[in-house]
Amino acid sequence: MGYQTIATVLNADSDQNAAFEAAIAFAKEWDADLEIYGLTLTYLDSPHYYMGASAVMIAEQAGDGKERAAAQKAEISARLKSENLRWHLHQATLPHSAIQNYLGRNLRFCDLVLLPRPYQGSDNVAALVEAALFDAERPVLMIPRGAATTVKMDRIALGWNGGAEALSAIRAASPLCRQASHVDICKVVANDADGDTPDPLLTYLRRHKIAADLSLLPMSDQGAGQTLLMHAHDSGADLLVAGAYGHSRLREAVFGGATRKLLESADIPMFMSR
Fold this sequence. Notes:
Blueprint: E1 5-11, H1 17-29, E2 33-42, H2 55-80, E3 87-95, H3 99-106, E4 112-116, H4 123-135, E5 140-143, E6 155-159, H5 164-172, H6 174-179, E7 182-189, H7 199-207, E8 212-218, H8 224-234, E9 239-243, H9 247-255, H10 258-265, E10 270-273
């Protein structure tokens, strides 16, 4: 079973072309419906609007939002006019503070969300990723800026630490793994005692028609995340799959910490789930 509903989120405040093109390609490859959530973000919830901002300023903000939404609709329609796929555009104008609630309610009905990788110049993208992973509880495929538009992930690295989050990500990525020519289970080990072979995972993958190798990676000085990323580079991986470890840890990933360093430096697509 593959992906029947692919979703992506667009807003004018960030460069999302690579993720949008990847979402189109994935929808065509899987014969899936493409759900596009076009957001126009306003700042009417900013403290400045409660400190004497005039009605004219608020009206100008609302009018600007309508113009940006209309331009976004025209651009999306022009891009998809010649594509042979089923697509649906859902537009919303909302304050930045409402992103998580809106996407949490809507993205939960899709199978896979394609978004840009965070930390490429827009603060809004991190909020989109957080909403998809932790509010909608959907797997997210993050595409780096400038990445080639391809649906063929020929070599896939699976980050494995025995946790439920890692297994959730691997399950969600299994349709991609079945298409790959090489799948590598990557377990970072701090010492010899950590090097047990994950036999249950190998059995699970085999029963799902996925042949996988096992790589035990000595922990580098830069931590587990960077160890995984360096191995993915060295092995020529097209995709790195990893678990997302709880809402508080995602906030650490978004606003600082080891996972943020991984997301900041990842220049290959990353697939995450919780």
